Amino acid sequence: MTVRALHLASFDGNIGDNLNHFGFYKALRENSNPQVEFTPLEIREFYWRLRAFDESFVEQVNSYDLLVVGGGNYFELWVGDSPTGTSFALPLEHLMRIRVPIWFNALGVDVGQGASEDSIKKFRNFLESCIQRRDLISVRNDGAMKALSGLFGNEILDFVQHAPDGGFYSAREDCIEPAQTFVAALNLASDMPDVRFPGGNQINYKMAVSEFARAIEKICKLSEGDVVLIPHIFRDLNIISDVLSQLSDPIRRRRVAVGPLHHGVDSFRIPLGLYGRSDLVLANRFHANIMGMAMERPTIGLFNYRQIFDLHEEVDSTALVDVREMGFADRLVTLFESLQGSGSAPGVSVRRSADLRNAYRTYIQNASQWLQEKVGT
Fold first, then answer.
1. pLDDT tens digit string along 251-289?
2. CA-CA distance, 229 to 215, in Å (whole number)?
3. HSE value, Cβ hemisphere, 13 Å, CA-based, for 36
4. d(Cα 168, Cα 19) in Å, to the nearest integer?
5. Which fold, 2-169+355-375?
6. Is 110 left (phi over 0), alpha (psi -120 to 50) or beta?
7. What is the DSSP string of 215-251?
8. pTM score, whole prediction
9. Contact 257, 182 (CB under 8 A)
């Protein structure tokens, strides 16, 4: 039997999401019975108001055997006008009209941009309704379980599965490797500037750009290799351009490369290869950290959003640099020098990377059992 699933997620927004979906599909093919056939539905069409979480959505969902939501950061609680308090803005009356099971696949529970009491109340009502329906609720290893516990206490955790992000199930054979190697791969994010670069007692955007440029200059002077800057979304190109403008012309023209920004199903393959061909990964985004770890490269989390700190905490890594602090370039250079001197740097071990793949495999196997019970074989 093949289960027909409608997959509501981001397919055209972020290469990390596409990596996540790839790992999810790959793990299902290798570990699930029954097999699942997916029809993608872009969640941004709802944000763009081309679609709505209305009766027509319910009718569409009910024409399939299963609805899969995510992975993605869709349990973010800043969405005050949502009936669920989250980005998955499905009214409860429509939720209860859905006849097929729903699999909430390794979602992020994000309170980093704020969470009003009203949003928290609506989110709890939504979760309790999904629990009543016996849907599968799983959250990813970015501090989501800790966030749920902080919001509702531990009692709700009995109904939620904890899963690594699907990107951890990727491997070297899944990337496109460049011929060139790099001494460092650097991913920078400039969305949410008020959170990432708050100013005041912490760094502002202009200061951060100068610090990143200073780090690149020093890394290039300490080595003969090149640095590659890797965008994940179009906004990353803003900070990449600003950092490039701060570099000396010989470094900018001779020692720095910029990775491509693709979209769609295979958009992750070249960036994944760039991370894999780098001696050190300096990662600002959630999935940039995952790509470095999945490719078993020393990976330093550039921390200016709680998600990165929580990810490293969950995978037992202390390889973090707070890039909200002035002078962080010196810390990055020190870590690079330790790598040059010893051939190793702080990060997730190869064994730990294998453990995360095994944990994801177990999650998929458990979900497969739930799917058999809900849909049948």
1. 999 999 999 999 999 999 999 999 999 999 999 999 999
2. 13
3. 27
4. 9
5. Rossmann fold (3.40.50)
6. beta
7. HHHHHHHT-SS-EEE--SSTTHHHHHHHHHHHS-HHH
8. 0.93
9. yes
Q: Is the peptide bond before 153 cis (omega within 30 degrees of 0)?
A: no
3-state DSSP assignment of residue 257: strand
- Report pLDDT for 183: 95
What are the start-end ranges of the E strands in 63-196?
A: 66-69, 72-76, 102-110, 136-140, 161-163, 184-187
Tokens of 127: 């979760």
Residue 260: is it exposed, middle or buried by C-beta count within 10 angstroms (0-12/13-18/19+)? exposed
Q: In this structure, are residues 43 and 72 in contact, taking their beta carbons and an 8 Å threshold?
A: yes
Return the percentage of the chain with pLDDT > 90, whole number. 84
**Whole-number Å distance between alpha carbons of 303 and 241:** 21
Contact 32, 90 (CB under 8 A): no
| pLDDT at residue 376 is higher than 80 | no
Instruction: Determine the Cα angle at 258 with ends 168 and 324, to 5°.
Output: 70
Segments making up each domain of the chain, as ranges: 2-169+355-375, 172-346
268's CB contacts (< 8 A; 6+ apart) are 15, 16, 18, 19, 22, 170, 175, 291
Query: In the numeric block, which tokens belong to residue 299?
Result: 């990976």
Among candidates 151, 317, 128, 332, which has minimal Cα distance to 243? 332
Confidence bin at 343 (pLDDT 50/70/90):
low
Q: Give tens-digit pLDDT for 298-340.
A: 999 999 999 999 999 999 888 999 999 999 999 999 999 988 7
Residue type at 72 in one-letter notation: G
Q: Report pLDDT digits (tens) over 22-48.
A: 999 999 999 988 899 999 999 999 999
Architecture of the structural domain at 172-346: 3-Layer(aba) Sandwich (3.40)
Is it true that 2-169+355-375 and 172-346 share their CATH fold? yes
